[in-house]
Amino acid sequence: TIDVILPNSQLRHLSLYGEMGGPKFGWWIPLLRSPSLTHLSYNSTSIARKNVKDPNEALFPAIAIGPVIKSLQFLRLPGASPRFPCFEMALSKCSSVQALLMDSWDEGHVGLPIHGQAAQVPLPSNILPQLRAINAPYMFISRCLQDRPISHITVSLDIPWNALRDFETIRTRCPQLEELVLTMNHVPLTR
Asked: In the predicted model, what is the mean pLDDT of residues 21-36?
């Protein structure tokens, strides 16, 4: 085992990359409990592969079963994160997050949306209640629009024409919106 002891530490920024499981599983969990942690950036090979049953994907379960991370204000995650079973439970432990950045769907895929009713269901208001800025794929942003003080949105459009019709909905549900930025990861060229 590896013990991480950081007496009187003032850890503010934590970046985790690669698989968070394996033979030295959990060495990083105490770092999540740092009372001064304000920024968490995470990139996982299992998320990049979109393997929701990968036993090495441990960040979301570790956050979900741990205490609330009170000081965390900025969170960066892979775009496929919502496909993991305890993703929402993990987000509920990050109640002070004000900015969420979710990278576009990985590895050049046109999109990997959550299908069915889950894509339509708004996140409960106790998840990310302080969210002011979000940069994410449209399918996730559309779930975050209600009951949050969002003033800045950057939308990653996987399929541009599907989201364009919903901009009036964004304006209606986000009365404090000051900035709306659109990015397109894939623009199909047809003849």
From this structure: 77
Q: How far apart are CA 150 and CA 132, in angstroms?
A: 4
**0.85 exceeded by pTM:** no
Tell me the C-alpha distance between 50 and 83, whole Å: 8
What are the residues whose beta carbons fall under 8 Å from the beta carbon of 44, sequence distance 6 or more? 16, 17, 18, 19, 20, 56, 57, 59, 78
CA angle 169, 125, 181 (to 5 degrees): 40
DSSP string, 15-57: EEES-S-STTTTTTHHHHT-TT--EEEEE-HHHHTT-TT-TT-
Contact 13, 47 (CB under 8 A): no
Residue type (1 letter), 90: A
